[in-house]
Write a structure and sequence with these properties.
Elements lengths: L6 H5 L4 H11 L3 H7 L5 H11 L6 E4 L5 H8 L5 E5 L2 H9 L6 E3 L12 E10 L9 H6 L1 E12 H6 L2 H7 L4 E10 L13 E9 L1
Parallel strand pairs: 1-2, 1-4, 2-3, 4-5
Antiparallel strand pairs: 5-7, 6-7
Bound molecules: S-adenosylmethionine.
């Protein structure tokens, strides 16, 4: 890949191989070149949403990347936190922060091979264009305890385009207390074409 990774390249991904290649290249510069430079708010919104719902550990951070969500949760004394992500390169950066117990390289749209079970599931920036659709919800429910709190950011356009509302409806025998609250993904530092992008904070409990 010749250009520096950015949102445009991330939203255009069409395979796991492309996801791995892009994030391998992006991992070292992601926190500063993307997170800080674009005023990326999702990790904070997800963490505060989870805490506000009374979420507690053990927590699984889905598409954990470099660990931005866990940095917030760890400051709030929530743990232990495990990370799952397709990109070993992103998880290498996350590991260096010392905020995770286990780091799992896996595709969350498939059954996740872990003996661990979770009281909380969080995710920022992973349910979005070119990444994970509603098919990612069932494998996560399978490794969550009854009563587990989910707090997931879902890109608003992606939510509409991929039929999340229908998927949530179809899961009504497995989940309860479904709530949606929109927030701005970026602040005013973001490039003009993404400055007003919205995500839904999708929260629910496993029945
Ligand atoms: C935009 S980053 C978000 C990282 C972190 N949660 C944050 O908010 O900074 C999206 C992450 O989702 C991961 N990802 C994409 N598709 C995935 C999949 N099918 N299974 C697991 N992780 C995936 C990518 O590797 C990447 O680390």
């Amino acid at each position: 890949m010749s250009d520096e990774p950015d949102l445009k390249s991330a939203y255009a991904l069409t395979s796991n191989a492309q996801v791995e290649a892009l994030y391998e290249e992006w991992a070292q510069s992601y926190d500063t070149g993307f997170g800080q430079a674009q005023g990326y708010q999702s990790p904070r919104e997800v963490a505060l949403g989870f805490i506000g719902l009374g979420g507690k550990g053990p927590v699984l951070d889905v598409g954990a990347g470099t660990g931005l969500v866990a940095e917030f949760l760890a400051r709030a004394q929530i743990g232990p936190i495990d990370a799952v992500d397709l990109s070993a390169g992103m998880l290498d950066v996350a590991r260096s922060k010392g905020v995770y117990r286990d780091l799992i390289v896996a595709d969350v749209t498939q059954p996740i091979d872990t003996p661990n079970r979770y009281q909380g599931v969080v995710s920022a920036g992973t349910f979005t264009h070119g990444h994970v659709g509603p098919e990612g919800l069932v494998p996560l429910l399978d490794i969550a305890e009854t009563g587990a709190v989910f707090a997931l950011s879902v890109n608003r356009q992606h939510y509409e385009n991929l039929g999340f509302a229908q998927a949530i409806d179809d899961l009504s025998d497995k989940i309860t207390d479904v709530k949606l609250r929109d927030f701005r993904i970026y602040d005013d530092r973001a490039d003009e074409d993404h400055r007003d992008d919205l995500a839904a904070l999708l929260s629910f409990r496993k029945r």
